[in-house]
Design a protein that fits this description.
With 149 residues, the chain is mainly α. Helices cover 39% and strands 0% of the residues. The chain has a single domain, classed as Cytochrome c-like domain (Cytochrome Bc1 Complex, Chain D, domain 2), CATH 1.10.760. The protein has 6 helices and no strands. The protein binds heme C. The site of heme C has 26 residues, from helix 4, helix 5 and helix 6.
């Protein structure tokens, strides 16, 4: 039993602790997760990244997303447009989302493009592989970073 005094003290401590948090940190509490660059065998290639994003058999991104792809007739509307993604998110945040966006939002429909531990759950053709390679993740990250508002 903490008793009445204990309770008042606990509330008081909570208030003091809260008042020590800077005002701007209180207003927004997003978990901003970032991933460092992956080890790759060549420098990132944003043009290749664009191809991966637009290609339905590789990235599949346009099944859900739209974006600045005037040549692509069918684009998704199940997710935010990729236009301006490089303004909204930094490189580390974009990379993190591509690697495994379920670690940002467990309910998301977006596939985890570089989560190796899933390999037992996918078909044999893919076993031991991630959806995209490390090089492709870096290419797509570099491309998304160029999408500025
Ligand atoms: C099956 C649907 C689906 C596919 C395929 C998909 N995404 Fe997503 N994506 C989402 C959803 C839904 C969100 C919204 C946030 C969430 O649910 O986590 C999202 C969020 C994002 C965001 C953050 C958008 C923002 O500005 O808030 C980026 C960037 C992104 N996706 C990039 C990609 C790229 C690049 C690909 C392909 C390599 C891809 N996505 C494939 C569904 C998808």
């Amino acid at each position: 039993m903490v008793g009445w005094h204990g309770l008042v003290f606990a509330i008081f401590k909570g208030l003091v602790a809260q008042s020590l948090v800077p005002a701007h940190a209180k207003a927004e509490t997003p978990v901003v997760l970032e991933a460092p660059p992956l080890a790759v065998s060549r420098p990132p290639n944003p043009e290749n990244g664009r191809k991966i994003v637009a290609d339905r058999r590789r990235g599949m991104c346009l099944l859900c997303h739209s974006g600045p792809f005037p040549e692509e007739r069918f684009q998704g509307n199940l997710a935010p447009s990729l236009a301006g993604a490089g303004t909204r998110w930094n490189e580390g945040q974009l990379r993190f989302r591509l690697i495994d966006s379920t670690r940002i939002n467990p309910e998301t429909t977006m596939p985890a493009y570089f989560r190796a531990e899933d390999k037992n759950r996918v078909g044999r053709a893919f076993s031991g592989r991630t959806i995209l390679s490390a090089e492709e993740i870096e290419d797509v990250t570099a491309y998304l970073s160029t999408l500025r508002d």
